[in-house]
Amino acid sequence: MLNFLRRAAPLRTPAPDTALPARELRWPPIVVVALCFLGAIFVVFVFADLLAPYDYRTQSLLNRLKPPVWLGGDPRFLLGTDELGRDILSRLLYAIRFSLLVALAGTAIGAFLGTVLGFVAAHFRGLVEEAIMMMVDVQASLPFILIALAVLAFFGGGFGLFILLMGIYGWEVFARLTRGMVISANTHGYAVALSSLGASPWRIYARHVLPNILSVLIVQFTLNFPQVILLETSLSFLGLGIRPPLTSLGQMLGAGRTHILTAWWIAILPGSLIFLTTLSISIVGDWLRDRLDPTLSGR
Amino acid sequence: MNLNLLLTKLARAAFTLWLVVTLAFVVLHASGDPIEALVGDQASQEVIDRYRAKFGFDRPLWEQYLTYFSGLAGGDFGISLSDRTPTLELIAAALPSTLRLAAASFGLGLLLGIPLGIVSALYRNSALDRFVMGFAVFGFSIPNFFLGILLILLFSLHLRLLPSAGGETAWHLILPAITLGTHFAGTFARFTRSSMLEFLNKQFMTAARAKGVPRRRRILRHALPNAAIPIVTIVGLKLGDLVAGSIVVETVFAWPGIGRLLVNAVSSRDLALVQAILILVACSMVLVNLAVDLLYGVIDPRIRASAASDKE
After folding, report:
1. Which of A105, A198, B199, B282 has the greatest CB tally within 10 Å of its CB?
2. Burial of B145 (0-12, 13-18, 19+ CB in 10 A)
3. Which among A134, A238, A278 is the nearest to B248, CB-wise?
C-alpha cells in the first residue's frame, strides 16, 4: 500500500528504499568502524590477561600519576598511571573484561528468564499469565536503578549478587515480547498443523516457535546489552557496583573523578571507552534492526 | 474515559505500590539487623537491646508490618538511622532542588528535541538530517556521568565559566541541566523524526496535498497532531530515565537533591531513608504513569474507543 503512495508522491519521497537488493549489499562505513571497534573490544575481553603489560592491581608508589606517553609520560606506562601508580592500560584491559562479563551475564540471565516466563505466560494463560504480567508491569513502571540501589543498600554489594541484579534488569521486556509472539504463533497454521500431527506443545515451542521469534529476541538482546553496560558502569561509578580490588570501566571513572584536575586521563580514558562501546553497539544494533525488520526500512 | 478501565488502572497502580512497600519491608527485615550496623561491633548487648526497643525491632513481625503500614498511611516514614531526623523532612528539603533540575533538563530536551526532530523529518536524508541524527545518537549513547565530567573539565576547570558542584545559584543549574537534557533532546529528536516520517507518507497527507492545503498547514495541522501520540508515549516512558538520570547526575554535580540523598543513604546503609525514598519515588512514578495513561485518552479519541471495546 505504501509503495503505491511512494510512486504517487515522488517529490517528497524519492525511492531509494525500493531498491532493496542494493541496500542490503551496502555496508555503511560507520557500521564497519563500529564493528571493528567492537571486535577489538571482544579481543580484549578474551585476551585481557595476555595483552596487559602488568597486573591491574600492581601498585608502584614511585610512579604515581604519570601522564600518558604522548604527554611526556614514562614509556613503561603507555597510558600513564593512577594515584596508586597502577598502570592505566592494564587496568583498562581488565576493566573491559569485567564490565563486559557482568553485562553479558546480566543480559543473558535477563533474556533467558524473560523468554521462559513469556513462554509460560503464553502457554498457561489465565492466572499464571496475569501474575507474570503484573510483575512485568511493576518492574516496567519503576526505573531499575532505583530497585538496584535499594537491593544494594539492603544486601551490600557482593560480586555474585551484583551479577544477579544485572540479570533481573530487562527480563520484563523479553517476557512481554515473547508472550505476545508466542500467543500469535499458536494461532498460525504451522503451529496448529504440528499440534494436530501430535507434537507436544513444548516441542513446538522449542523447535518451531523459538527459531521463528529468535531474530526479534536477538535484536532485543542488542538493545538491552548496552543498557546493562550503562547500568553497571553507573552503579560502579557511584561506588556501589563493582568495588576494589576488582575493577570496571565505571569504577575507574568514579575513582578517577577526584583527580580530574591534575590527572584527567584516569577518568577520561575509561569514560571514552564506555561511550565508544555503547555508541558502537547502538550503531550496529540500529543497522541490524533495519535489516532484520523490513517494515522499518526507510526510517 | 471508560470507568471500568479507569478502575483497572487504579487497581494496578495500587497493587504496584503495595508490592513496593511490602517488598521494602520484607527486604529490610531479611537483610539482617540494621541496629548492629548502626551501633557498631563494640556495642554491648544492653545498648543493642535498647536501640531495638526504641526502633520497634523487638516486636513480632506482623505487628511491625502493621505499624509500618499505618505509619506510612499517616505520613510517618520513619527516622533516618544515621542523623536521627524524620526521613520525610530530609526528603522535603531535597525535593525543590530535584524538581528544579528535572524541569530544566526535561524542558531543554523537549524544546530542543521536538523541533529538531520535525525539521529532520521534513528534510530527510539532507545534511541537516544527518547532523541532527548524529547529535541524537551522541545524546543517548553518551553516559550521563561521563558527559557531566567532560562538561566539568571544560567549563569549570579549563574555561572557569561555571561552577561544578553545589546548588546555591542558578549558575549551578546549567551544567547538570545540560548533562541530563542532552540525553532527552537526542531521544525526543529521534522519536519525533520517525513518528513524523510515518505520518508524512500517509494517504491523508497526499489527499490534503491534492486538495491544495498549504505545506505549513499540512505539517502543523495534519501530520503533527498524529505524530504527537507516539511522542507523548515516549515522553511518559522517559520519566523513568529522568529519575534514574537525576540519581547519577546529582551525584556528579553534588546537586543537593533526592538523587544524591539516596546515593548517600545507600553508601552509609541508612536503610530507613532508602526505604522512604524508594516508596515516595515509586509513588510519584506510578501516579505520573497513571496521568500519562489518562492523557492518551484525551489526546487520541481512538484509544478511548478501542480500550472500551477490547478490554481484556
Report:
1. B282
2. buried
3. A238
Amino acid identity of B20? V
Question: B283 to chain A: nearest residue by CA?
Answer: A142
Single out the residue of B120, B126, B145 nearest to residue B195, CA to CA. B120
DSSP conformation class of B56: T
Q: Is the pLDDT of residue A6 over 60?
A: no
Listed residue (A243, A220, A216, A242) closest to A231, CA to CA: A242
- Mutation to test the B interface, candidates A31, A145, A243, A287, most B Cβ within 10 Å: A145
A239 CB neighbours in chain B (<8 A) are: 267
Domain ranges of chain B: 94-268
DSSP one-letter string for B75-121: T---B-TTT-SBHHHHHHHHHHHHHHHHHHHHHHHHHHHHHHHHHHH
Give me the residue from A141, A145, A275 closest to B247, CB to CB.
A145
pLDDT number for residue A10: 42
Partner residue opposite B12 with nearest CB, options A137, A240, A299:
A137
User: A123-150, pLDDT tens digit by residue?
Assistant: 888 888 888 888 888 888 788 888 888 8
Residue pLDDT, tens place only, A263-283 = 888 888 999 999 999 889 888
Q: Measure CB to CB from residue B153 to each of A138, A234, A264 and give the nearest one.
A: A264
Give the 3-state DSSP-derived string for B210-277, with helices as H, strands as E and coil as C: HHCCCHHHHHHHHHHHHHHHHHHHHHHHHHHHHHHHHHHHHHHCCCCCHHHHHHHHHHCCCHHHHHHH
Q: Which CATH architecture has domain B94-268?
A: Orthogonal Bundle (1.10)
A286, A232, A190: which is closest to B140 by C-alpha?
A: A286
> How is residue A85 annotated by DSSP?
-
Interface test with A, best of B145, B191, B198 (most A CBs within 10 A): B145
